Amino acid sequence: MTSLKIVGVPEHFNLPWHLCLENGEFEKENIDLQWTDVPEGTGKMCQMLRDGSADIAVILTEGILKDIVNGNPTKIVQVYVASPLIWGIHVAAHSKDQTLADLENTKVAISRLGSGSQLMSYVNAKNQGWNSNELQFEIVNTIDGAVTALTNGTADYFMWEHFMTKPLVDQGIFRRLADCPTPWPCFVIAVREEVLATQPEAIATLLKIINAKTRDFKTIPNISDRLATTYHQKTEDIKEWLSVTEWSQEKIDLALLERIQKQLVELHIIDRAIPVAQMV
User: Fold this and answer.
1) CATH class for the region spanning 86-181
2) Which CATH number fits domain 2-84+184-278: 3.40.640.10, 3.30.70.20, 3.30.110.40, 3.40.190.10?
3) For 33-65, how does the pLDDT look when each residue is reduced to its tens digit (9 = 90+)?
């Protein structure tokens, strides 16, 4: 039995993995896959890949790409979700800020340095024509930390996935001012180089299993109800989310990687591009 440690966010995108685990599909192929939820998100998962406490991560494209450029000994083995991630831009319900323009030169809550919530604040700043050098950050670790920070006024806005944050909007805790979709496929599967070198067959088998599940995921009977129950969502919201979400079973396109790196350099998220062959 090959033991592999995998990490991902506790969000609806990752239900296919949990269904495979529940059904014993990895175990049947002699893979002991140990899943850990990481609510802190991308920055924490990058750290776990670096220190070996994770072998595999289902992780935001821009976050792992940035960390590979900065020396993370990890490779992107394929795209996991091909559609963009829709980041909602949220303020506290009682906030005086009413438009995106009101948020210029205010403080953004982020889960960690290097997280998607930080990197996408640069994308939003560019979209709005703001000076990204003026961005100010408050590290809040999790979505619960963001609730506290925005409610107490230690941060002014928070960017997080639209649908996972919608219950807080519905409850009158947050107001969503706008959405900011990623200009690239949102999630990839990344594996530590050491694991790829020593367990290539196990990784290939694992990908075959998860790809079979994501290929047919939307056709699973009552999947909307299961998603809504598991992730505390309204069924109508889940159906809308499913309609705009596309999983992938393909390797990442090298030209796309070059394009994303170019965008990240322009956003000053990375200071240089590296050969894409070093990333895959």
Assistant:
1) alpha beta
2) 3.40.190.10
3) 999 999 999 999 999 999 999 999 999 999 999
